[in-house]
Each structure stands twice: as C-alpha cells, then as structure tokens.
Design a protein that fits this description.
247 residues, alpha/beta, disordered N terminus, binds zinc ion, nine-stranded mixed beta sheet, single chain, six-stranded mixed beta sheet, globular
Length: 247
C-alpha cells in the first residue's frame, strides 16, 4: 500500500474500491449507511460503508476485522491498544491522533497519525481529522490536538466527534450523520450537544459517550427531547441499542 504525504495531505492510495454495496448515492446511500451503523457502547461504532470502519474500539468482546479504525485521543477508554489489536488484520489501517503515538507505536499495526486538518484517503474513503477539545474544562486541552473525524464515502458524510465540547468549528462542518457525546463531565452535556446539533443540522444524529464510563440512557433521552424542541423534525435522533456479538 502506497502512503504519501503531499503538502499536508496524507494519502493512502486505493488498491481496490468499495465492495459489498450497490452504487447507491444521495438519500438512498444515506439510509443504507445509517442502517449499517452498530453501537458497541461508549464511543465504539461499527460503520459499514462497503469497508468496515470502527471508532475508538473499547471493551470489544466479539471477533471482527476492521478495514479502518479511527482513534480520537489517548485516553484509555478511546485509545485501547488491546482492543485495536483485536480488530486488526494484516490490511487494517488505523488512523489515530498523533498524541496516541506512544501507545500504538509498538503494536505491530499500520497507523497513520493525524492532527486537526489532516485528511487521509483509504480505499476511496476520505477520513478527515477535525478539532476536538474542551472549552470550559481541562480534560482535553485544544493544544493537545485531539481529533474528531469526518468520514466521507459514497457521498455520505459521517461525523464522529470524539471527546469534545460544542466548539465554534462545528458551524462549518457539512455532515449527514453526526455521532455526538451527550454525557457531560468530560465532554458536552445533552443541552450543549443539542445546540451543536442545531449548529450542524445533519439529517441524523446519534448520541454516544454514555452508559458505561460516564452518563446514562437518561442523557440520551434528554438529548432527543432537546433536539426535537430546538429543530423539530429537521434532524432525526436515532438512539441505538448496544449490539452484542459478531456482526
Ligand atoms: Zn477523553
Ligand atoms: Zn471520553
């Protein structure tokens, strides 16, 4: 696999295209992608866009092989070397925040390190790192360069926020599906996440970062109510149950 760096743009060249999907685009591709998002608790999602993408794998109890694993920052419930290893095969590409280098360096997996603003192309999937940081707490300082990701495939743009507060950059994001933390404490709470949803106006929003380390289902429920009262049906909230076992 060819990895090249061209004026700040990281490229992992495609050796084969997306498979397993019809050539749907537009609303059809959006619905199809939405239907293939599974949640494994906390911030771990499996997103099938023809390639299998995992986000911040943590406490994985099933077997699977990811094509791409995105890792937002070094905290142990987001950057877990054992869980990343568990989902990795010989062709898996991990796209991780640069601050994870110390934890992933010796793992024997292929890692592309990114900072906010970096874009990586992997087999036709565009993976863009965007800022993620706290504005009124100190767990995730902006200067540590933690990231969220916007993953674009077949014209569908999925935003995986990572550990962040509502930040001004969100108003500039163009996304179809947003995966947002709602727990409060280390990240934005349900009220702030509803405001962030209004900033971005995606077609769908899925709450995360509750139910294990911090936050509860009540936070997800409150988030749904707040989004409804703020933007009505313009953004649909989808609360996922936790998936069990191998997909
Ligand atoms: Zn964190
Ligand atoms: Zn977290």
């Amino acid at each position: 696999m060819l990895v090249s760096v061209v004026s700040g743009l990281l490229c992992v060249a495609a050796v084969f295209g997306l498979s397993g999907f019809a050539s749907a685009t537009g609303p059809e591709a959006l619905e199809e992608t939405l239907g293939k998002i599974r949640w494994y608790g906390h911030d771990t999602f499996r997103i099938d866009v023809g390639k299998v993408i995992y986000t911040d794998p943590y406490q994985i109890r099933h077997s699977d092989v990811a094509d791409v694993i995105v890792v937002t920052h070094e905290h142990s419930d987001h950057c877990s070397p054992a869980d990343i290893k568990k989902l990795s095969g010989p062709d898996t590409v991990v796209v991780a925040a640069k601050q994870c280098e110390g934890k992933l360096g010796g793992l024997g997996v292929q890692v592309v390190y990114v900072e906010p603003g970096g874009t990586t192309m992997i087999d036709g999937i565009e993976v863009s790192a965007v800022p993620a940081y706290n504005v009124d707490k100190s767990f995730h300082p902006k200067e540590r360069n933690g990231v969220g990701f916007i993953v674009a495939a077949r014209g569908v743009r999925i935003y995986f926020a990572g550990d962040t507060d509502r930040i001004p950059e969100m108003k500039e994001f163009s996304v179809d599906i947003a995966l947002l933390p709602v727990s409060g404490t280390y990240v934005m709470n349900a009220t702030e996440a509803a405001e962030a949803t209004a900033d971005m106006a995606p077609a769908y929003v899925i709450p995360m970062h509750y139910g294990s380390v911090v936050g509860s289902e009540a936070d997800a429920g409150r988030f749904e109510e707040l989004v409804k009262s703020k933007v009505g049906d313009r953004v649909k909230v989808k609360i996922l149950g936790i998936s069990a076992g191998t997909p």
